[in-house]
Amino acid sequence: MIKSEIFRQYDIRGVVGEQLTNESYYLIGKGFGSMLREKGLQSIVIGGDARHSTREFMDAFIKGALETGCDITDIGRVATPLLYFAIWKLKQDGGVMITASHNPAQYNGCKLNLGLNSVYAEALQELLQRIQREQFSSGSGRLIHNDTITAEYLAYIEKDIHLERPVKVIVDAGNGMGGIYLPEILRRKGCEVIEMYCEPDGDFPNHHPDPTVAKNMTDLARAVVAAGYELGLGLDGDADRIGVVDETGKMLYGDQILNILARDYLQQNPNQTIIADVKCSKNLYDDIKARGGKAIMYKTGHANIKMRMKELDVKFAGEMSGHVFLADRYLGFDDAIYASCRFLEIVAKTPLPVSKYLADQPKMYNTPELHTNCEDSRKFEVVAQVCAELKAEGYDVNDIDGARITFDDGWGLIRASNTTPVLVTRYEATTQARMKEIQKLIETKINKYL
Rounded to two decimals, what is the model's pTM? Predict the structure, then answer.
């Protein structure tokens, strides 16, 4: 009827034709519509990305949801941030985005929302159980098509962003959805823009649409240097994650992007709290504190971060993975199009080149995210065993999300990915040799339990 493994921690995702079919989406539509109806809610906005299966899957979801009595507003092919924007602008009870984000072309999925809150974790499992029990509402909803939301979104961001001068920038959208919007906004603000791979294409013919992986940014890096431009901006498949390369072609990690944005945010908003996930550099946390802010380390995951922001009334947060959440002047959800514009505000008013923005920080040696294959059924158990052993040996362990082990001169992290069958590790220290020591310590323990 429906495969349970497609219900992940934050969204629904699987291989088209094998794990996801029109029938899957019809049932998800019936299940989600029924969830809303039982809460006394009725309106859903739906959008989808450029994958070849997306339109068909949207129609199947719509059919199922209409049969529960929900009214559906179809906004067509959009980026994920536009779906979130439409929920807010159109005052919808719920939203669904048909997308597999930065996954390869053979995947699809969907992100579900109640208002601007993600449906995730236990709520997704409850949806699965509802579908398995066939616990559906019945009714006859209305279908509305809206083709104005893109213009409203562009106008909203254009009005908010103020550049002190035009910036020379190259945008690489990875043939995802962001290429429709970001170059247009930047040109309206007077920027000189070169477009790379900005035509949406569900085959992602040029490179994998994930701007946090260095090999996916090599074309952009070369182009920035060749053109003599100030920076390059990369977007993932559904445009909710940002990547940056500086004028020398060097890629900034997600926590470095956050650090630059955080400095500007704290300058405008002194003494505020900023949330970042457990994968971020010590430099980021230290820098926030040094500039009068309060830094909170929290679980990885866009849904986790957004919920924590609301609980604590925090206006700025982000993740190593390139998700940036701004409720300062904006709506609080992860939008790489908007975050890119905020980054360019900094570029436009800062005399230094991007490569020098964090030059005053201590030199740290770190790895990117490293992945070790581990079956979904075992990955959390392995992390728990490593965490317990490190605690028993007296290490300073933060276990809010896996285990982050802190030393005077560095740290190491192990956590289970919530979306793929891997263990995620990352290491950082004041010297290369010390970083490798920390890496060896943790990897030795991982290998004991694999």
Answer: 0.96
